[in-house]
């Protein structure tokens, strides 16, 4: 079974095309118009062993908010669609990932219930051309569009670039684990019988 999704979303603020393969090899073609955001998403794809094509045309003459948030909505929706009925997946995933002086924890539950808990304090307004406050908006949009319980905590802060990169890579590793196949399971990992 192919765990893929192709989505488009067009509004007055953004025009997005996204193709996702959860069982890829880490290949990406990403153009959002925000170079640092591209860099973060490329790291997410590579370290999660996903394949993703993403083209975003957003109202960057206003700011990056709509581009980042809507990308999160579309990515989350694609993950949800690619997961299908979630039969045979591990459901839970976690990672503690170092990036030089920084250490980040990420835990995921593909429960169908959305929730974001994020503890990260950035000390600069931007990394490259990405507003640091939009990182929370991105992860919030992803978690609610997937229906995912997502916890991200910066355990050891430091350079803002390092913190952010560790967050995206830790999320990739945790999601890859949670979406991975559990050979001992042929149903969903829930006593309720559904996720």
Automatic annotation (TrEMBL):
Reply yes or no: does the keyword Glycoprotein apply: no
Principal EC category: lyase
Q: By what name is this protein known?
A: Imidazoleglycerol-phosphate dehydratase
What InterPro entries is this protein classified in?
A: IGPD_sf (IPR038494), ImidazoleglycerolP_deHydtase (IPR000807), ImidazoleglycerP_deHydtase_CS (IPR020565), Ribosomal_Su5_D2-typ_SF (IPR020568)
Write the record's keywords in alphabetical order, separated by commas.
Amino-acid biosynthesis, Cytoplasm, Histidine biosynthesis, Lyase
PANTHER family given for it? IMIDAZOLEGLYCEROL-PHOSPHATE DEHYDRATASE, IMIDAZOLEGLYCEROL-PHOSPHATE DEHYDRATASE HIS7
Q: Which GO terms describe its cellular component?
A: cytoplasm
EC assignment: the record states: 4.2.1.19
Q: Which Gene3D superfamilies match?
A: Imidazole glycerol phosphate dehydratase, domain 1
Q: Where in the cell is it found?
A: Cytoplasm
Organism the protein comes from? Candidatus Limivivens merdigallinarum
Q: List this protein's GO terms for biological process.
A: L-histidine biosynthetic process
Q: Which reaction does it catalyse?
A: D-erythro-1-(imidazol-4-yl)glycerol 3-phosphate = 3-(imidazol-4-yl)-2-oxopropyl phosphate + H2O
Q: Does the keyword Plastid apply?
A: no
Q: Which CDD domains match?
A: IGPD (cd07914)
Q: In which pathway does it act?
A: Amino-acid biosynthesis; L-histidine biosynthesis; L-histidine from 5-phospho-alpha-D-ribose 1-diphosphate: step 6/9
Protein family:
Belongs to the imidazoleglycerol-phosphate dehydratase family.
**One Gene Ontology molecular-function label:** imidazoleglycerol-phosphate dehydratase activity
């Amino acid at each position: 079974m192919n765990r893929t999704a192709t989505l488009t979303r067009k509004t007055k603020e953004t025009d997005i095309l996204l193709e996702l393969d959860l069982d890829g090899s880490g290949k990406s073609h990403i153009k959002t118009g925000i170079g640092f955001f591209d860099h973060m998403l490329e790291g997410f794809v590579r370290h999660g062993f996903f394949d993703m094509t993403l083209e975003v045309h957003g109202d960057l003459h206003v700011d990056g908010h709509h581009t980042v948030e809507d990308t999160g909505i579309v990515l989350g929706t694609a993950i949800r669609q690619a997961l299908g009925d979630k039969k045979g997946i591990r459901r839970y995933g976690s990672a503690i990932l170092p990036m030089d002086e920084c250490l980040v924890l990420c835990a995921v539950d593909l429960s169908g219930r959305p929730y974001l808990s994020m503890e990260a304090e950035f000390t600069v307004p931007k990394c490259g051309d990405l507003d640091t406050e939009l990182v929370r908006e991105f992860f919030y949009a992803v978690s609610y569009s997937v229906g995912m319980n997502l916890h991200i905590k910066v355990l050891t802060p430091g350079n803002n670039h390092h913190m952010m990169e560790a967050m995206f890579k830790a999320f990739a590793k945790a999601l890859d684990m949670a979406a991975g196949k559990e050979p001992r399971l042929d149903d969903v990992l829930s006593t309720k019988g559904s996720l």
